[in-house]
User: Fold these one by one.
Assistant:
Number 1:
Amino acid sequence: MAEHSTDNTFVDMDEQEPTGIGGWMGTLFLSWIPIVGFIMVLVWSFSSRTEESKQNWARAQLIWLLIGIAIIVVLVATGTYTTVFDYAKEHGGTFSFYSA
């Protein structure tokens, strides 16, 4: 939100300091912890006190999560998901592009 000053310049009232490397390292570390990470991504996505760059990153994380869930739903609905795991079980639990 910009406010007009008397000398015909605009002053950005919402200017924020960028997150430092340590801040991003902590953010990534927290986001990797199961359950806690998901909750924190939700908080960062929808909190009005979260800085804009972290909020956008968290929203992108949620979008990728939804895309991943949608892909899994499609694979399960078409039977492909179980076929992949059946193949893995038959071949010792691993995938190999090269036959021995």
Note: Residues 17-90 form one domain.
Number 2:
Amino acid sequence: MATIVNLQEDFGKVVGTRHLREEDPMTAYQRLLDNSRRVRKPLPYPRGAFCFKTHEDAHAWKWNLTLKAAAKS
């Protein structure tokens, strides 16, 4: 199927330009990882497996750590 283009029609404005970088894929991947680590906020609670007797205990523990992290910032 052929693409139809009307050459008499005015095209819209172009805003900005895209600069393509000449870099290998591993450098681009590393740059992506660095940017994502800068943007992502750390969790307010430690990583790992924790045992609680009830869901309410786990929720209270998580909520207290979240409030402590919010008070620090």
Note: The first helix runs from residue 25 to 39.
